[in-house]
Amino acid sequence: MPKITEARVPIPSRPNKFIHRLRACIRSHNLSVSTERSYVDWTKRLIKYYGMKHPEEMNKRDVERFLSYLAVDRQVTKNTQKSALNAFSFLFNRFLKIPLESLDFKISGQVRNNPVVMTHEQALSVISRLPPPFKLVAELMYGSGLRVGEAVSLRVQDIAFAKRQILIRNAKGQKDRITMLPNRCVESLEAQILIAENLHQHSLSRGEGAAFVPDTFGKISREQRKSFGWQYIFPARLTSYEHNNSEKVRFHLSQESVRQQVKEATYRAGLCLKITPHSFRHSFATHLLETGANIRVIQELLGHSDVTTTEIYTHVLNRNLDRVISPLDQLWICS
């Protein structure tokens, strides 16, 4: 049974253990579940690297050495090293109140490889082998260009069926954007919303029914969070306590469960590609370019702040390649 909840790890109301206190601090800053998971994971890796040395006994040189180790010995990408840096910046600057200033470390020279892009047939082959509701999640990633986190955290009121549009709230960079709703997803989406509504009615009958809404969304009252519009379209099966342990709320389907299901479907499809949920978003952008869509429009649909980020997809295009003749073949034709 796949993990289907994005709920936070429970912590005591008065946390004493170091990791529990760190989690409580992260939640007090209204950071997301995935950010909490990342910060805690990097903190544990730092502690383990120094033989279970307590972070309060560390200094900036310890952090510098670990970041250099990631670049030189582990050869992680720049983005991975940046994730570690962000985690340690929070750990020391905000949680431990130990300033990390002017860090001097080896910056990773590893760059991210060109994105893995599936053909249309390959994308549909993987999607067809996914069970519900993961099939619909993948269809939205491929058909609308959603990130996996954006897909699983969609709420009922984010769907405009009449306009065939999807509102992405508080996306990367804390920006909202609108993207397309494929006609092919409409019927499945309506059925999934009905499933979410039945689960919500059951929760209301038990005196619960509030959806998790981060504070970054602004002031949302308890009654509003219990309304159906705020419910997740892909809800977690079980409820769990929100960050202040004051009330049980319902989170959404976990990103990790989607990754696992996509991995298994890729294997069943017999594809020798390293396909992840993000591959559907890559394929969405690339296939739009192939059909002649304006790159500025694609930039808006993807939510990129800089068009140069979108332009990476021009490097993986095979457009017009079939019209280009190899020099070797030209020699053969002339001979």
List keywords for this structure.
single chain; three-stranded antiparallel beta sheet; disordered N terminus; 8% strand; hpI Integrase, Chain A; DNA polymerase, domain 1; two-stranded antiparallel sheet
CATH H level of the largest domain: which superfamily? Intergrase catalytic core
How many separate structural domains? 2
Main CATH class of the largest domain: Mainly Alpha
What's the order of the H and E elements?
HHHHHHHEEEHHEEHHHHH
Total helical segments = 14
User: What is the CATH topology assignment of the largest domain?
Assistant: hpI Integrase, Chain A
What's this model, at a glance?
The chain is mostly helical. It has helices spanning 18-28, 33-49, 60-72, 78-95, 120-128, 134-144, 148-152, 183-205, 222-225, 255-268, 277-290, 295-302, 307-310, 327-334, and strands at residues 159-160, 165-171, 175-180, 235-241, 248-252.
